[in-house]
Automatic annotation (TrEMBL):
It is an enzyme of class 3 (hydrolase). GO terms for molecular function: glucan 1,6-alpha-glucosidase activity. Keywords: Glycosidase, Hydrolase. InterPro entries: GH, GH13_cat_dom, Glyco_hydro_b, O16G_dom_2, SusG-like_C. Signal peptide: none annotated. It comes from Buttiauxella ferragutiae ATCC 51602. Residues 13-406 form the Glycosyl hydrolase family 13 catalytic domain. SUPFAM superfamilies: (Trans)glycosidases (SSF51445), Glycosyl hydrolase domain (SSF51011). This is Glucan 1,6-alpha-glucosidase. Belongs to the glycosyl hydrolase 13 family. Its EC number is 3.2.1.70. CDD domains: AmyAc_SI_OligoGlu_DGase.
Length: 546
């Protein structure tokens, strides 16, 4: 496999609204991020995925952009953004900008023009349809944020498509002028020295609207290859596409080396598998290791030699990793470290979502009024109108609501966790007095230093980057284990995914294995035996001696 500069890099995702507030208005901002670059350099990460900071009316916290080449006033200025890019680069950290081009804000000049008349030159930048015979929406397509995916425009008597909020009209990617505008914008950002792009719902831009085939439309890959050749393909930028619909076969189309499309995609099988078939994310299914292992193994195996995996437990749309896959209580630290070791010892690019490195947890606001996320608020109303109880919806929001990931970053135990000297835009998780960066920095055995070690190991041991994934102990109901093999090097990774003490019987051919324990969350283990006693959530990686 052709080696890439970013293959041994780890990505840190920043949700700017909740990372660090530098001017006391309760909203995180770019100067706040700049003030924490030394902290990120110390962690060792080399890429930052920066969620949107562009001008936006913030209907969806910035994923509704009104100007792709200006910075939202609450986040700062373009000069500050350029300073962030420069100061990060001085620390060998490269910025991945969030590219949100499946839709714009309804305040984007293109849409304002489009609304003026049917023959406005920008009308065809969006997707319009005549009403159905009954005067209603053209079809029953449902928005991801509730309600119809069609909004009526009185002036023209037509409907426009919005897969997300009514204030996020979809762009018409069948229009070559849209291609040209977006490519030019991307090239201007690349010229500012960014490291690449994270691409929002990129699997939706090839939508076949009248067939209601939104994801994986027939032109999708041609559009991405065209984008590659017109912009980032000319350099060695990193690109990661968000693709909720992706299968391993799709991922090979997106990230196959000879495909000239993307570096990798975010696929969500290990997330969706715990969503209820009918109620979706609003009713969680209990975590179950066997099917979880099967999904991870499927992706590790399918992209073994072709393509490249992205590795993540959470992001700004998902619940906190330790709450979803670990233990928030007695074993919060042990399980957070186990989840870190497991993720960083798989093959692909690991992503750390802000706060994951200190084991931040989900939040449980008592009332719906404390929530801010448009998806949670809209679906709460819609489901209650359909007869779902308040209690059940609050349970769903507590388990899978997006605000779980968006509570302010917990820097120390001062008021509002040191995130702001003002009133935070969303309530700080009350456990910040215990869970915060200052406490983690002061505790040599903290989750934070465990992440720092994993990031460093990735730069020291090629087996962690290029080693083949080979499952072991596949049938074990509580342990997820595998080998990474590269040339003569073998790394054994064993993870107890439960709070139980376990006696793990070691397969005969592995019983005398010994070597160097690269990382563990209990006492280091440098040799196996007939069986070993595993502690709750115990996890270690053993580099097998020659
Ligand atoms: O997310 C796509 C998406 O489908 C999720 O928003 C959705 O919430 C899903 O149910 C996961 O929980 C992307 C961005 O990541 C998200 O923040 C934006 O809201 C969305 O696109 C629209 O831009
Ligand atoms: Ca601020």
């Amino acid at each position: 496999m052709e080696k890439k500069w970013w293959h041994n890099a780890v990505v840190y995702q920043i949700y700017p609204r909740s990372f660090m507030d530098s001017n006391g208005d309760g909203i995180g901002d770019i100067n706040g991020i700049i003030s924490k670059l030394d902290y990120l350099q110390q962690l060792g990460i080399n890429l930052i995925w920066l969620s949107p900071v562009y001008r936006s009316p913030m209907d969806d916290n910035g994923y509704d952009i009104s100007d792709y080449e200006d910075i939202a006033a609450e986040f700062g200025t373009m000069a500050q953004m350029e300073s962030l890019i420069a100061q990060a680069k001085q620390r060998d950290i490269h910025i991945l900008m969030d590219l949100v081009v499946n839709h714009t804000s309804d305040e984007h000049p293109w849409f304002i023009e489009a609304l003026k008349s049917k023959d406005n030159p920008y009308r065809d930048f969006y997707i319009w349809r005549k009403p159905a015979a009954d005067g209603g929406p053209p079809n029953d397509f449902h928005s991801y944020f509730g309600g119809s995916g069609w909004a009526f425009d009185e002036a023209s008597g037509e409907y426009y498509l919005h897969q997300f909020s009514v204030r996020q009209p979809d762009l018409n990617w069948e229009n070559p002028r849209v291609h040209a505008e977006v490519h030019a914008m991307m090239n201007r950002w690349l010229a500012k020295g960014i490291g690449g792009f994270r691409m929002d719902v990129i699997d939706l831009i090839g939508k076949e609207v009248d067939a209601q085939k939104m994801a994986n439309g027939k032109n999708l890959h041609a559009l991405i290859r065209q984008m590659n050749r017109a912009t980032f393909g000319k350099g060695d930028a990193v690109t990661v596409g968000e693709a909720w619909s992706a299968t391993p076969a799709d991922a090979l189309l997106y990230s196959g080396v000879e495909r000239e499309e993307l570096s990798m995609v975010f696929q969500f099988d290990h997330i969706k598998q715990f969503w209820d078939e009918h109620a979706g994310k609003w009713r969680s299914k209990p975590f179950e290791l066997a099917s979880f292992k099967a999904v991870i193994e499927k992706w590790q195996t399918a992209l073994a030699h072709q393509g490249w995996n992205s590795l993540f437990w959470s992001n700004h749309d998902l619940p906190r990793a330790v709450s979803k896959f670990g233990d928030e209580g007695e074993f919060r630290v042990a399980s957070a470290k186990m989840l870190a070791t497991a993720l960083h010892c798989l093959k692909g690019t690991p992503y750390i979502y802000q706060g994951e490195e200190i084991g931040m947890t989900n939040v449980r606001y008592e009332t719906i009024d404390e929530y801010r996320d448009i998806e949670s608020l809209n679906l709460y109303q819609e489901r209650l109108a359909e007869g779902v109880s308040h209690e059940e919806m609050m349970q769903g929001i507590h388990a899978n609501g997006r605000d779980n990931a968006r509570t302010p970053m917990q820097w120390d135990d001062s008021p509002n966790a040191g995130f702001t000297t003002g009133t935070p835009w969303i309530t700080v998780n009350p456990n910040y007095r215990e869970i915060n960066v200052a406490a983690a920095l002061a505790e040599p055995d903290s989750i934070l230093w465990h992440y720092q070690k994993l990031v460093a190991l990735r730069k020291q041991y090629p087996v962690l980057v290029y080693g083949d994934f080979q499952p072991v102990l596949r049938e074990h109901p509580q342990v997820f284990a595998w080998l990474r093999a590269l040339d003569s090097e073998r790394l054994l990774v064993i993870n107890n995914f439960t709070a139980e003490h376990l006696t793990l019987d070691i397969p005969h051919q592995m019983q005398n294995w010994h070597g160097e324990c690269l990382i563990s969350n209990y006492a280091p283990r440098d040799r196996l035996a007939v069986s070993i006693e595993l502690q709750p959530y115990e996890s270690f990686a053993l580099l097998i001696g020659r």
